[in-house]
Amino acid sequence: MKYFLISILILCSILKIQAQNDTFTLEELEEKSKKSSRKEADKNTVPFSKVGKVPLYPGCDVKGSNIEKKDCMSSKIAQFIEENFDNDMAQNLGLPTGPTRIISVFKINTKGEIVDIRARAEHILLEKEIVRVLNLMPKFTAPGYVEDEPVIVPYSLPVKIMIEEQKDKDESFSYPAHKRCAKIIDNELLKKCTQEKISDFIKLSVNYELADKLFPQDKSTQFKVFFTVDKKGNIKDITAKAHHREMAKEVIRVLKKLPKFKKPAMNNGAPADFKYSYLLTIYF
């Protein structure tokens, strides 16, 4: 009986110790949950070279080979960055003249979303800018697959920027000014502000239902606009290039409603015509 009681006491002590060892704080439980999620994510992460079907970027041919889809994806991402990256900011960071590289990595998750974006560059503002731009990228049409199962696919993206030699500013010329940018004194900031206001006007005014109807398989479309701001600040000579004639007509319709500029371009103290030309992407 004595030995039986001792055995019970030892067993109870073991159970008590085990119960104490299995007691965690809220922070410890959260950390364990994060570690478990990371392990699960790592298990589902497959290198680009190993996936059966590579992720499909919007606008790329669903019937293409893996190589064709990857080339299409790389081309469209490069184009997206070129359109959205703030090159003026990069030129004014005081970096040495010549090429500078930004190395960015991200993952395309099983929902086709861009996640876990990281970047390395010579200047922290370049890192922040590339992360900002990549966060704007549209969701992929389809994620990567291995044996018909969606997987997480990591992607490495080197970006090269050419830092130009700084030249003396031409004080004799100033860009046209949108009414909400007219108080800006710095010429480059004035240019950037006006272009942003024009882009915002187009994106707020364009018929997205028409775009969706014209491009049912896509989530975005691009078009290039051309117009002149004349010596009185009026918009004229509007043209547009798009992937469909009706889309080009729609963009021209919108640009015709663009308000008169507060100030025209100025050259040597006199009003001057100024021609605009730039590429825009809309998402629908």
From TrEMBL:
Protein name in UniProt: TonB C-terminal domain-containing protein
Superkingdom: Bacteria
Species of the source: Aurantibacter aestuarii
Protein keywords: Signal
Signal peptide range: 1-19
